[in-house]
Amino acid sequence: MTSDPLGDAAADLVAERRVRRMLAQDAASAALGIELTHVGVGTAQVRMTVRADMVQGHGTCHGGLVATLADTAFAAACNSRGDGPSVAASADVTWVRPAFAGDVLVADADERVRSGRTGVTDVTVRREGDGQVVALFRGRSVELRQPAGGGRGA
User: Fold this and answer.
1) Segments forming the whole domain that contains residue 112
2) Element (H, E) at 77
3) Are 125 and 107 in contact (CB under 8 A)?
4) CATH number, domain containing residue 73
5) Which residues pair with 104 in a beta bridge?
6) What is the pLDDT of residue 106?
7) Which of 21, 121, 133, 114 is nearest to 77 (CA)?
8) Angstrom distance (rounded) from CA 88 to CA 118
C-alpha cells in the first residue's frame, strides 16, 4: 500500500495547526523556552536551550526539566490527531547522561502504536551539538472523550 503524498501533507498541516493551537495555551512550556520545530501525524520535535536557572546542585540540568521537554514532545505527537485531547496516563524516563547550561536539547517523539483511545509514544532527547542521547521517555496516552456541548469530560 502506498501513501498519497498530497493527503499526507494535508494531514500534517492539520496536525500542525492542532498542535500549535494547543501549545499556544501551554504557559509552562513557553516559560521554559520550549519551541516546536516539527510536527506531523504522530510525530513531533521540540527544542530547549538549558539556561543557568535550569541547573540543579550538581551543576547539570535538572532531570525534571529534561522530562518536561520530553513530555511536551509527547503531548505534541499524541495530540496531532484524534477527536478529543490526549493526555498522559503514565510515563517512564531513563536519564542516560547529563546536560549542562548552554546545551540545546532536542526531543523527537514518535507515536509507536495507537489503538482506540490509547497510544504509546517514544521520545528521545539529544544534545543538539553532538547528538548524544540525554534521556529516553516512553509515554502512554489516552484520548479524552468530548461530552456533547464541548465541555470537559473523560
Assistant:
1) 5-143
2) helix 63-78
3) yes
4) 3.10.129.10
5) 49
6) 98
7) 121
8) 10
Place of cell 498542535: 19
Position 150, amino acid: G
Whether residue 151 lies inside any domain: the answer is: no
Is 120 contained in some domain? yes
pTM of the predicted structure, to 2 decimals: 0.89
DSSP annotation of 146 reads P
- Give pLDDT tens digits for 61-91: 999 999 999 999 999 999 998 888 999 999 9
Residue 32 lies in a domain: yes
Contact status, residue 58 vs residue 47, Cβ threshold 8 Å:
no
Query: How many independent structural domains does the chain possess?
Result: 1
Q: Where are the beta strands (DSSP E) in 54-103?
A: 86-95
Tell me the CA distances in angstroms from 39 to 16, 45, 46, 110, one per residue in order: 6, 6, 9, 10
